Amino acid sequence: MDAEEKLFEAIEDEERPEVEDEENEMPMGGHQRLQRRNKAVIDKFLGKGRMMHSAVIFPEYYGELLTWALQCYIEKEEWEVIRTLKYRAPEPVYIDVGTDYDRCENLLMNGQLIVEKDDIHLIITVDLYNPFRCGNSVQVEGTARRKKEVEAFTDGVKSIAKEQNFYRGKKVEFSRHPRLLNVKDRSWESIVLNPAIKREVKANTVDFLRKGKRWAEYGIPQKRGVLLAGEPGTGKTIICKALMSEVDGITCITTNAYALSANEYITGLYEMAEDLSPCIVFIEDIDMIGLNREEYGYRSGPALISLLNVLDGVEDKQEIITVATTNNVETLDRAISQRPSRFDRVITISLPSIEERKELTNLLCQKIPIDEPIRDYIAQKTERCTPAQLQEVIYSLAIEHPVESIGVLSPYLEISKEKVDHAISKVNGRNRCHLGFDIENNHNGHNVAELNQTAVMKSD
Ligand SMILES: Nc1ncnc2c1ncn2[C@@H]1O[C@H](COP(=O)(O)OP(=O)(O)OP(=O)(O)O)[C@@H](O)[C@H]1O
Ligand SMILES: [Mg+2]
After folding, report:
1. Which of 24, 182, 279, 391 is most buried per CB count within 10 Å?
2. Which residues lie across from 26 on neighbouring strands?
3. Candidate from 188, 237, 255, 393 with most ligand 1 atoms within 8 A of CB, to mutate
4. Are residues 375 and 335 in the same domain?
5. Are residues 87 and 235 in the same domain?
6. Is the dihedral of CA 357, 358, 363, 368 positive or negative?
7. What digits encode the pLDDT tens for the residues 15-43?
8. What range does the domain containing 413 cover?
9. What kind and span of H or E run contains 150?
10. Are residues 289 and 372 in the same domain?
11. How many domains does the chain have?
12. Residues near 255 by Cβ (< 8 Å), separated by ≥ 6?
């Protein structure tokens, strides 16, 4: 159970906060009631008198950034934490936060800190992922004569979060708890693709971002949308990965296909992208929300409308590139596929030509010893295969080859043309598998192509 579930379970029986202080955006009635449990300790620590408070409120996706910024501020300004008290749950709740690719910190998610510096006493309430309201808050309280220190505290936390935001320039998967992605580098050289297509993809994405100032001089908005369309296994995801590898220092945000249709996901995604720009947003499998509404029904309508709205509004947002992928551009809503300025370019990734199949076969056979005539035969016979299928033909030939005979008579695997034909027929005959960023998130053993089909059938 993660910290958020633990917190939710612990407070399930709590009454809902009755009074909300709109002006300060804090549930004051609820806060006072919750704080009553710590009243004796707090009163003793702060003393009597009029109290004042100041709060930092962050959106859902920035809860972890907020508690991290608080911790950094406490350390930097050398506040001493005297005690940590419970708040909503029976114990203070902590959460593991990945603040760099190889660093994870255990940070307070819900609780009250009693802090002291010289003779200044403050109470800090950390209330993240509170299920009763959106947003995350850190509230600082002290006696009225400490107004200046209370405000300096919240300003300090805000400025650390803004200036040292640990998501900036990184690769991030967007969700309520954004996750830093340690994506393995993928080189363009390892992708077999028509050179003109490669150039077109780069010109509309990374090169476009790099030359941003020139577009500003020409009056061209510094934003762009590119839709990569192609059958499953043509290389759309690895193109995205190659783009990510190329743009060190530029924020790359990927989406989770299963969360895409959730309320507020798209809006939060683009808020974050704007905050972290220059930025590339990758929306893999846009079909999940972008199917033509007239043909396939309005099930994912709200998410699609959010997307159309943010893409229209991105004009004022600068230096955001959106790269989306789809298996079938024909099934997409025309508001996505045929409307420049949302997706300015639809780039079709076609099945590989004979030259490309030869190139890919040779690339794969750098490590798998298959001699040239058989390589040529494989390339010739895989005419309607995607690169992923061609790859599978070669892998299966290697895997099914008897291990004991390798290297006995020749340095090459002994593969007959019949075996190649058999391997091709097996690959062509089975369902194609979806491969993408979120393969490990595939629930219930379904692949996205299957889910899409189900979605289509249900709305028929
Ligand atoms: N053009 C290519 N060049 C080299 N390898 C490729 C290419 N296309 C696909 N592959 C191989 O096939 C695998 C699957 O490709 P990828 O995940 O990029 O397909 P996709 O187009 O994103 O498919 P889907 O639409 O199902 O998400 C890759 O990991 C890679 O090994
Ligand atoms: Mg993919």
Report:
1. 279
2. 21
3. 237
4. no
5. no
6. positive
7. 444 444 444 444 445 788 888 889 889 99
8. 354-429
9. helix 147-163
10. no
11. 3
12. 173, 174, 265, 269, 281, 282, 283, 284
